[in-house]
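== Folding the chain ==

***
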Amino acid sequence: MTKRKVPTREARPDPDKEAKNRADVATHAETMTAVAALRFAGVVGEQDPQTLVAEMTDRIKAVVGGDMREPERMLMGQAIALQAIFSSLANRAAINMGEYPQTVERYMRLALKAQSQCRATLETLAVIKNPPVVFAKQANVTTGPQQINNGITVPARAGETQSEPNKLYRGARWAMDGRRNGERGKRS
């Protein structure tokens, strides 16, 4: 007796699972960075996307683990490139000085933007290398609906409190009811 073949269904991929996988890949930092790098890194030749994603994953894991050498190198490289852009644009502005004032202005605006970005990049690098020290005088941490009054002393009993006279009233010539200070009785 021969076994009868049971028709099997072809394993069709679940469209929801495929969409989730695509969304998962599209939201990973490594993937999106690799896509951008592939589009802009044509100067270094053809790149394999999987190798690029793997390399980015390794570098991101190193930074997450506390190794800041790569970001420091990256920021310093960017600062050097921005300085080169600034110098080139400033030189082009100088060449056009006197003849084409609008062109000079455009080049100088771009040059100064590059200079500003260079400064910001170096400032970021300095913060990474030497993080600022924060001195916290006081931290008010609550876990529920609590009121915190700093520097205000609350008396033990309400009956013992004595309100201070109003500082604005002390030197006034007229009382609030229209009488002069020190007068008694009704106002005439």
